[in-house]
Amino acid sequence: MAKCYGTELILDLRNCNPDKMNRRDVGLFYDRLCLLIDMTPTVRKFDHWESTPKKDWPKESHLLGVSAVQFIVTSSITIHALWKLKNVYINIFSCKKFNVEKTKKFASEYFEGEIIQALSIERLL
User: Fold this and answer.
1) Which of 25, 42, 48, 78 has the fewest CB atoms within 10 Å of its CB?
2) How many domains does the chain have?
3) In what order do the strands lie in the sheet with 4-14?
4) What are the two backbone dihedrals, phi and then psi, of residue 20, each rounded to the nearest 5 degrees?
């Protein structure tokens, strides 16, 4: 049998608090999550509509929100927080072990949403 290389958590939240779906709060989420699961953050990148004039927003309003990637020493954490849908989509991949249950609970509580799907898989060598 192949050895485990790392863990990937795919987490979908709905009915989240839209007041938490901004660059500042997503950044705080990353800071707190990295502390909680003992990950070392490196580079963080945002792509968001907050600073874009509304006239330049896409016609597909379900695309509006904040997307971000937090690179960590052992891989990355991505977030797509969509304002209209009030959904937050999170992917965490790390070759360093982390507590999946603690992560799910924290994300749900932080964004004040319910977990509609959570999938944790082991990535193999």
Assistant:
1) 42
2) 1
3) 41-48, 65-72, 75-82, 87-94, 4-14, 114-124
4) -95, 0
Strands 65-72 and 41-48: antiparallel
CATH number, position 98: 3.60.90.10
Q: In terms of residue numbers, what domain contains 119?
A: 4-124
Reported as a single tens digit per residue, the pLDDT across 89-102 is 999 999 999 999 99
SS3 of the chain: CCCEEEEEEEEEEECCCHHHCCHHHHHHHHHHHHHHCCCCEEEEEEEECCCCCHHHCCCCHHHCEEEEEEEECCEEEEEEEECCCCEEEEEEEECCCCCHHHHHHHHHHHHCCEEEEEEEEEEEC
pLDDT at 74 (0 to 100): 96
CA distance 88 to 82: 6
Portion of the chain with pLDDT greater than 90, in percent: 84
List the structure tokens of 80: 């797509």
